[in-house]
Amino acid sequence: MKTKFQVNNGILIVIVAALAVFPFVSDSRTWTILLTQIFIFSILAMSYDILLGYTGIVSFGHAMFFGMGAYATAIMLNRIEPTLGVFFLSIAVGMVIAGILSFLIGLLTLRLKSHFFAMLTMAVSGLFLVLAEKWRTLTQGNDGFTFRAPEFFKDRMMFYLLVLACLVLVYFFLRRFVNSPLGRVLIAVRENEQRTKSLGFQTLHYKVIASVIAGVVASLAGSLYAISLRFVNTSVLTMEITLDALLMTIIGGVGTLIGPIIGAGVIELAQHYLSGLAKDYPIFERWIIFFGIIYILAVIFFPKGIVGTIRYAYWKRKNNDLKVDVPAPKRKELIK
Amino acid sequence: MSILLKVDNIHTHIGQYHILQGVSFEAKEGEVSVLLGRNGAGKTTTLKTIMGLTPATSGTVTFLNEGITKNATHHIASNGIGYVPEDQGIFGALTVEENLKVAMRKEDDAARERQEYVLELFPDLKKYWKKEGGHLSGGQKQMLSMARAFINDSKLLLIDEPSKGLAPVVIEKVMEAIVEMKKQTTIILVEQNFIMASRIGDTYTLIDDGETVQSGQMSELVQNEELKRQYLGIG
């Protein structure tokens, strides 16, 4: 009999294979670009899930790592040369900077209680946004700049396949990470930090590790995002990016890893279709309002998200199936 | 028997409140020391202060002849003090197996042996091995919490109200387990159920209004109706 693990992996392989074949059977440029965006935001949302879903850390500054990756790639490709080698080097540079920064910020701020941490991350992220706006010689401020991508990515399909490969690799890496002994400690921290300390764990170290992993993965997403647009400006550092990641994670299912991917799909598709409706219905020009409403409704009525709700329903059904009638012990037996 | 833990005149503040105002007692190796007192006397805070969760503002806590008063909680736990809190502190999203594996820290032969031992002590845990902690009953959670503190080869176990909210039949099981654990480790027990405390305990410390009022052998307290009436409201 196949185990649940094998079945899940089997389904994943089929989905990944279908997505890999997609650009060969469809010539829709719109869909290729849309799916590429979904993959990139899936990577970002998964990185956010490591913080929120697995460690219980609410960060309002996640965009700074995304932005760091985007700027590292854009600046290096613009200033050095648009080759594949420089592209990969820029990804590595972005990840190293994001790793060092998330380590330092984590070490200084993760000692604080969650709401203070959330506020501080927002402030630090704001600082980076201002820095990017003011350091015009490097970033060209709000206006941003365009740059040339490596020749290899002229064909959108190649970039699509690279991003899909990154998504699959990041998913399996993070799945391995959360299922490792270290991942179990992170869940323990989320569940009860004081109790985890009483078991002999320096919880700050584990929270910093989670923060570094999340920061590095977010930077990768940022690098890919910059290439997809061939343009970068300060919007990659704004609160909107963090809120998108938060929304994708919550809608898909917090602490599920696969949920944020589904969440990213739902949000990106909704955004695409809602903004498309604006041609006929002017109200949809303000599609962001609908997102706000979706977010409020999701938090109130759908706190487990799509994957969380499905898993809960499955668990409930399984437990109902297993339920057997056990006669209650008699009082005499209890006293004895 | 040598003294394993010595608490000397500790004072603890939580926010603006002065909770412990001079608690002193000793725990000797291989014994069960019971902290007794009315609700709100400061028993749980005493355990938390030993663990460094609510650090003492003055006084000293010495464990294995080493001062641990200002140590961080994770250091205290790593030095060999296990803690079973009142609310059990089970990680609800982790299975019984994962709860124990997290607590184990290292998975060596000695740890595996201890795991076998706790599973013999609490066979229910083996039965619910793959069940999430959040879906266990109160008694099972208590057993898991005790197993988790014990699995780390703790030289001293601090157990806070293990009988609280449990059915009589489960209390009996928990009590048997504590008696069994006593053969391997030293225990400081906070317990409101005097019958249970007197059956397990070797020594007692009475705490009232955050202060130690009396310490001695449990057998003496069992005979002392006046003390029991005055500080425990029984007798």
Descriptive tags:
heterodimer, A: 336 residues, mainly alpha, two-stranded antiparallel sheet, 15 helices, 2 strands, 1% strand, globular, disordered C terminus, B: 235 residues, alpha/beta, Rossmann fold, four-stranded antiparallel beta sheet, 10 helices, 10 strands, 27% strand
Q: What is the count of β-strands of chain A?
A: 2
Biggest sheet statistics of chain A: 2 strands, antiparallel
Strand percentage of chain B lies at 25-35%
- In the CATH classification, which architecture of chain B applies? 3-Layer(aba) Sandwich
Q: How many whole angstroms does the radius of gyration of chain A measure? A: 22 Å
Distance between the termini of chain A: 44 Å
Please mark out the parts of chain A with pLDDT under 50 across 5 or more consecutive residues, or reply none: 324-336
Work out the largest interface and the residue count of each chain: A-B, 22 and 25 residues
Helix content of chain B: 25-40%
The assigned structural class of chain A equals mainly alpha
